[in-house]
Amino acid sequence: MLSLGNVVSDFAAGLAAADAKRPVFTSRTGRIYQAGIGPHGEDRAVELTIAEMRTAHPERYTAIGQGLQYPNSKQRCDVWIGEPVTWVLEIKMARFFGDNGKPDDTSLKDLLSPFDLHRSALTDAQKLAASTLPGRRAVLIYGFTYPRMPLELAIEAFEVLARARVSLGPRASAPLGALVHPVHAQGAVFGWEVLGYHAKQK
Fold first, then answer.
1. How much of the chain, in percent, has pLDDT values that exceed 70?
2. Which structural domain range is residue 165 located in?
3. Residue 200 above 60 pLDDT?
4. CB neighbours of 1 closer than 8 A, spacing ≥ 6?
5. How many domains does the chain divide into?
Protein backbone atom coordinates (compact mmCIF):
# COMPACT_ATOMS: atom_id res chain seq x y z
CA MET A 1 0.00 0.00 0.00
CA LEU A 2 1.30 3.43 -0.98
CA SER A 3 1.86 5.46 2.20
CA LEU A 4 1.01 9.12 2.63
CA GLY A 5 4.67 9.78 3.36
CA ASN A 6 5.54 8.38 -0.08
CA VAL A 7 2.86 10.52 -1.73
CA VAL A 8 4.07 13.69 -0.02
CA SER A 9 7.73 13.01 -0.84
CA ASP A 10 6.92 12.14 -4.45
CA PHE A 11 4.72 15.22 -4.81
CA ALA A 12 7.55 17.43 -3.51
CA ALA A 13 10.02 15.81 -5.91
CA GLY A 14 7.56 16.18 -8.79
CA LEU A 15 6.93 19.83 -8.00
CA ALA A 16 10.67 20.52 -7.85
CA ALA A 17 11.22 18.68 -11.15
CA ALA A 18 8.46 20.71 -12.82
CA ASP A 19 9.97 23.91 -11.40
CA ALA A 20 13.42 23.01 -12.72
CA LYS A 21 12.02 23.13 -16.25
CA ARG A 22 11.36 26.85 -15.67
CA PRO A 23 7.68 26.95 -16.69
CA VAL A 24 6.39 30.44 -17.45
CA PHE A 25 2.90 31.51 -16.48
CA THR A 26 1.07 33.94 -18.76
CA SER A 27 -2.15 35.50 -17.49
CA ARG A 28 -5.35 35.90 -19.51
CA THR A 29 -4.44 39.54 -20.04
CA GLY A 30 -1.09 38.55 -21.54
CA ARG A 31 1.11 39.41 -18.57
CA ILE A 32 4.19 37.18 -18.48
CA TYR A 33 5.36 36.19 -15.01
CA GLN A 34 8.85 35.24 -13.91
CA ALA A 35 9.85 31.62 -14.56
CA GLY A 36 9.14 28.94 -11.99
CA ILE A 37 6.28 26.92 -10.58
CA GLY A 38 5.42 29.58 -7.99
CA PRO A 39 3.28 31.92 -10.13
CA HIS A 40 1.18 29.11 -11.60
CA GLY A 41 -2.35 28.50 -10.42
CA GLU A 42 -3.00 25.48 -8.26
CA ASP A 43 -4.65 23.30 -10.94
CA ARG A 44 -1.85 23.83 -13.46
CA ALA A 45 0.90 23.34 -10.86
CA VAL A 46 -0.71 20.07 -9.78
CA GLU A 47 -1.05 18.97 -13.41
CA LEU A 48 2.66 19.58 -14.03
CA THR A 49 3.57 17.87 -10.75
CA ILE A 50 1.63 14.65 -11.28
CA ALA A 51 3.07 14.36 -14.79
CA GLU A 52 6.54 14.34 -13.21
CA MET A 53 5.38 11.85 -10.55
CA ARG A 54 4.12 9.51 -13.27
CA THR A 55 7.43 9.77 -15.14
CA ALA A 56 9.61 9.24 -12.07
CA HIS A 57 7.58 6.41 -10.52
CA PRO A 58 5.42 4.68 -13.14
CA GLU A 59 5.05 1.66 -10.86
CA ARG A 60 3.24 3.87 -8.31
CA TYR A 61 1.43 6.37 -10.51
CA THR A 62 0.33 4.63 -13.68
CA ALA A 63 -3.17 5.41 -12.45
CA ILE A 64 -3.31 9.01 -11.23
CA GLY A 65 -5.48 11.91 -12.27
CA GLN A 66 -7.37 15.06 -11.39
CA GLY A 67 -11.03 15.75 -10.80
CA LEU A 68 -12.73 12.77 -9.16
CA GLN A 69 -16.37 13.68 -8.62
CA TYR A 70 -17.81 13.50 -5.13
CA PRO A 71 -20.89 11.27 -4.87
CA ASN A 72 -24.15 13.22 -5.10
CA SER A 73 -22.29 16.48 -5.77
CA LYS A 74 -20.99 18.60 -8.62
CA GLN A 75 -17.74 19.17 -6.73
CA ARG A 76 -14.60 17.26 -7.62
CA CYS A 77 -11.69 16.07 -5.52
CA ASP A 78 -8.35 17.41 -6.73
CA VAL A 79 -6.34 14.20 -7.23
CA TRP A 80 -7.00 10.46 -7.17
CA ILE A 81 -4.42 7.67 -7.14
CA GLY A 82 -4.76 3.99 -7.96
CA GLU A 83 -6.95 1.58 -9.91
CA PRO A 84 -9.02 0.85 -7.93
CA VAL A 85 -8.66 4.16 -6.10
CA THR A 86 -6.40 3.94 -3.04
CA TRP A 87 -5.97 7.66 -2.22
CA VAL A 88 -8.00 10.80 -2.84
CA LEU A 89 -6.31 14.14 -2.17
CA GLU A 90 -7.53 17.67 -1.69
CA ILE A 91 -4.64 20.01 -2.43
CA LYS A 92 -4.13 23.64 -1.50
CA MET A 93 -1.39 26.11 -2.35
CA ALA A 94 0.06 28.46 0.27
CA ARG A 95 1.51 31.50 -1.49
CA PHE A 96 1.68 34.62 0.67
CA PHE A 97 3.40 36.97 -1.80
CA GLY A 98 2.94 37.84 -5.44
CA ASP A 99 5.33 37.62 -8.37
CA ASN A 100 6.40 41.19 -7.56
CA GLY A 101 7.20 40.44 -3.93
CA LYS A 102 4.18 42.27 -2.52
CA PRO A 103 2.13 40.50 0.21
CA ASP A 104 -1.13 38.84 -0.80
CA ASP A 105 -3.47 39.82 2.03
CA THR A 106 -6.11 37.24 1.00
CA SER A 107 -3.84 34.19 0.91
CA LEU A 108 -4.52 32.84 4.40
CA LYS A 109 -8.22 32.35 3.64
CA ASP A 110 -7.25 29.60 1.19
CA LEU A 111 -5.91 27.61 4.14
CA LEU A 112 -7.88 28.69 7.19
CA SER A 113 -11.29 30.05 6.23
CA PRO A 114 -14.17 28.22 8.00
CA PHE A 115 -16.62 29.18 5.24
CA ASP A 116 -17.52 26.59 2.60
CA LEU A 117 -17.66 29.17 -0.19
CA HIS A 118 -13.91 29.81 0.18
CA ARG A 119 -13.07 26.11 -0.36
CA SER A 120 -10.12 26.32 2.02
CA ALA A 121 -7.87 23.52 3.22
CA LEU A 122 -9.89 23.58 6.44
CA THR A 123 -13.24 23.06 4.73
CA ASP A 124 -11.63 20.51 2.40
CA ALA A 125 -10.71 18.45 5.47
CA GLN A 126 -14.31 18.56 6.64
CA LYS A 127 -15.57 17.68 3.15
CA LEU A 128 -13.28 14.64 3.04
CA ALA A 129 -14.33 13.56 6.53
CA ALA A 130 -17.97 13.53 5.45
CA SER A 131 -17.42 11.97 2.02
CA THR A 132 -17.98 8.45 0.76
CA LEU A 133 -15.20 8.65 -1.82
CA PRO A 134 -13.27 5.40 -2.30
CA GLY A 135 -9.84 4.87 -0.81
CA ARG A 136 -8.05 6.76 1.92
CA ARG A 137 -8.44 10.51 2.13
CA ALA A 138 -5.85 13.23 2.72
CA VAL A 139 -5.27 16.97 2.61
CA LEU A 140 -2.00 18.17 1.02
CA ILE A 141 -0.71 21.71 1.32
CA TYR A 142 2.21 22.79 -0.83
CA GLY A 143 3.60 26.23 -0.39
CA PHE A 144 6.39 28.71 -0.24
CA THR A 145 8.09 30.15 2.79
CA TYR A 146 9.35 33.70 3.24
CA PRO A 147 11.44 35.44 5.91
CA ARG A 148 8.54 37.70 6.92
CA MET A 149 5.88 34.97 6.67
CA PRO A 150 7.23 31.51 7.51
CA LEU A 151 5.07 28.75 6.06
CA GLU A 152 5.40 26.66 9.21
CA LEU A 153 3.32 29.13 11.25
CA ALA A 154 0.40 28.84 8.84
CA ILE A 155 0.70 25.05 8.87
CA GLU A 156 0.53 25.02 12.67
CA ALA A 157 -2.58 27.21 12.55
CA PHE A 158 -4.21 24.86 10.05
CA GLU A 159 -3.52 21.87 12.28
CA VAL A 160 -5.04 23.51 15.35
CA LEU A 161 -8.23 24.44 13.48
CA ALA A 162 -8.52 21.19 11.55
CA ARG A 163 -7.96 18.95 14.57
CA ALA A 164 -10.78 20.76 16.36
CA ARG A 165 -13.13 19.63 13.59
CA VAL A 166 -11.89 16.33 12.20
CA SER A 167 -9.61 13.46 13.09
CA LEU A 168 -6.26 13.92 11.36
CA GLY A 169 -3.41 11.48 11.11
CA PRO A 170 0.16 12.57 11.84
CA ARG A 171 1.79 15.20 9.65
CA ALA A 172 3.94 14.05 6.73
CA SER A 173 6.25 16.61 5.14
CA ALA A 174 8.99 17.03 2.56
CA PRO A 175 11.07 20.10 1.63
CA LEU A 176 11.05 21.54 -1.87
CA GLY A 177 14.64 22.75 -1.86
CA ALA A 178 15.91 25.61 -4.01
CA LEU A 179 13.37 26.79 -6.60
CA VAL A 180 14.01 29.02 -9.62
CA HIS A 181 11.60 31.90 -8.86
CA PRO A 182 13.25 34.79 -6.97
CA VAL A 183 10.27 35.29 -4.63
CA HIS A 184 8.87 31.76 -4.40
CA ALA A 185 12.34 30.38 -3.88
CA GLN A 186 11.83 27.68 -1.26
CA GLY A 187 9.02 25.78 0.36
CA ALA A 188 7.64 22.44 1.44
CA VAL A 189 4.78 19.96 1.04
CA PHE A 190 2.66 18.79 3.98
CA GLY A 191 0.02 16.09 4.20
CA TRP A 192 -2.44 14.62 6.71
CA GLU A 193 -4.73 11.65 6.37
CA VAL A 194 -8.33 12.56 7.17
CA LEU A 195 -9.67 9.77 9.33
CA GLY A 196 -13.21 11.10 9.76
CA TYR A 197 -15.11 13.33 12.13
CA HIS A 198 -14.65 13.19 15.86
CA ALA A 199 -17.30 10.95 17.40
CA LYS A 200 -18.97 13.89 19.14
CA GLN A 201 -19.40 15.69 15.80
CA LYS A 202 -20.97 12.84 13.82
1. 98
2. 4-201
3. no
4. 86
5. 1
